[in-house]
Specification:
mainly alpha; 107 residues
Length: 107
């Protein structure tokens, strides 16, 4: 079950649901084991991150995102990609303010 461009209107939750179903199926038939990563397409990565497909391709080509290149196809490890997305998180204004307030109290 690979997500194609016609599925891009789906919510991220729907994409994750299909990916989990695919992981469960592959584990059930013995293709992947515990702790192994699922390969996702550029379109799936774009849907997960809410970025444009071309942006994902550009980031992969420039080395901002780790990728697997299999002939002309680009794939990402799902866990690795989600870790990259998480690493892009910046603290909110409220979190920065709380951190400053905490620093003032300890100073």
């Amino acid at each position: 079950m690979i997500i194609d461009k016609t599925d891009m209107g789906d919510t991220r939750a729907a994409v994750f649901t299909r990916l989990v179903e695919r992981m469960d199926y592959l584990a059930e038939i013995g293709i992947i084991g515990p702790g192994e990563d699922l390969m996702i397409t550029v379109e799936e990565a774009a849907a997960i991150s809410c970025l444009d497909v071309n942006t994902i391709r550009q980031y992969a080509q420039n080395g901002k995102i780790a990728r697997y290149k299999i002939e002309s196809s680009v794939r990402f490890g799902l866990r690795e990609f989600c870790e990259w997305v998480s690493s892009c998180r910046q603290p909110s204004i409220a979190e920065r303010k709380a951190e400053k307030d905490k620093a003032k109290v300890t100073a």
